[in-house]
Structures are given as structure tokens and as C-alpha cells.
Amino acid sequence: MNLYTDDIKERLFVEVYNAKKLEELPKNVLYECREDLALVYRLSGYDADFKRDCDLVTEEQIEHWGVDADTLKSDAWTNTMVKRPPIMIDLLDVCRADFGRNHLENDNPVSLGISPLLDMFVITNRMNDNGAIYMFDDETMQKVANKMGGNLIIMPSSVHESIVYCEEHGMDIRKAKDLVNSVNQTKLREEEILSGEIYRYDKDSHTLSKAQVPEHEEILMPDKISMEEMHTYGYVWDGMLPLTKERAMELLDADVPLFKLYEDGADAMLDTKEDILSHDGLFGVERDSWINYLESQSQNETNGMTQEM
């Protein structure tokens, strides 16, 4: 009896973790680092020889099974793609927990340019279980890129799924990273967090790499309250700049969208003075809206000076 081919081979799968989590894993776990992430290999079921539930494969197990690492990795990838094939579904379908449709089942291009939300798609599997791994499968990424007609921006929203959109459509990289970090801090359990980085898949070179994300530019803050105070309050998305109630009242008629911020990380747009008075927490203005407001104020001042000359 060959222990590996008769029992182990068909129970191997590949998963992706944040590389920092390797420090928390048992020693000698077989892994392969890719940027800030690490591919690991899992044996499903019960390991009778080691008398424990199966977990991530270790070098000790590989030696015991009499198989080389490259063969094991290849078999794990084959099982993952065949037994847990990837699916590409609309972001709205994920919100409805509907994993029935799969855009990868045909070669038809997807419709883009409708709205930022509808231009985003989720890559996972039918179980929505450790589905972020497919960002490392070139064949899957090529299919997605062909359907979307260009290079891909990939948001690793958790170990279970990744969100993709065409580089020529959707939000900019800075906003995408802000969103991923906000989700990491407010919506996920620690073990589900994959990365705070944004990835880019180049369709022509078949390469996956971390996207270069520009730092937030230094701007005049709209109020005396700091970002750290907002984070401590419970709202952590850095795309929002905090306001006190008094400052929100001052900006209400300034033609800039304002929001009520909540301690659980949620927000809601406000429209009236009563909306402000009835809320006892913090308020906010989106960074991009505030920058546009500052630029318009500066332009108005420039125009006024020009007219006086």
C-alpha cells in the first residue's frame, strides 16, 4: 500500500493566509510566500497516523508520506480546482448570499460602466470557503480579465473571497485600500483577515503583484478633531474626515455631503439641521468631497482677486 497515493493525495487542498500568521502556526508548516501572503496546504479529514484532526501540512508529514513537496503542491492545486472550482459572481448576489450564478461558465464579456458597485465581481467557490486562493491561479485570472476586458484590481476582502474590478473602471487604488482596511477592522473575525494590500493582475504579462497605492495627500483638516479620535470612537475608514456637531452645523449649507458616524463603523448621510441635532456622536465628510470643496473655495478666491485687478 502506498500511503500517499491511496489515502492522502485526494484530500489535499491549497489555501492562502496572511504571511504574518505563519508565526502563529505550528513549526515546519509547508508554505510558499507571495508578497505579503502565503500559500499553505491542508489535509482534509482525520489523520490516523498522527492521531489528530487534519490541519496544515508540515514537512514532517511530507517525509512520513514519502512524497516530494512539488508533487504535493501540484496535487493540492488539482484537487482545489476540480473539487472546489472557482466562481465569479456579481457583488450584489454575494450580498443576497446567492452563489448560484457563475460568470466563468461562459466566455461572454460582462457589462461594465453601469455603476461602480455593478462593475465589481467576487471570486470564490460555491461554499464561499477559502475562495481567495483563486487570485493565484493564472487560468482563472485570465478568464476573469478576458471577461472584463483589461487588467484587474483585486481587493482581498477575506480568506474566503476576493473582489475584482477592471483597472479602467471602478474606484481608484487609494479608495480600494481604504475600503479593504475598513472591512478588516469592522466586519471580519481575526482569522478571516487576509491582507490590507491591493493587488493588480496584468493580463498580458500574466503577473500578480501588489498595487502601488499613493499615500493620502496632506490636506487642511475640516475640524479640530483628529483621525485618531475618530478611530477610538469606533469609525475607522480613513476615507472619512471627522467633524464635531458644531462644525457639521457650519458646513450644512456648504454644498458638501455630510454624514453621521456610528461607533460600529457605520455611517448615514444627513440632510437637515434636525439630523445633526438628533445625533450625539461624531460626524464626517468624505476626504474627496472635502478636497473638492477646498479646491472650489480656492478657485472662488482666485476669481475674486482677478476681478478686482
UniProtKB/TrEMBL annotation:
Pfam families recorded: DUF5688
Top-rank taxon, per record: Bacteria
InterPro entries: DUF5688
Protein name stated in the entry: Uncharacterized protein
Organism annotation: Eisenbergiella porci
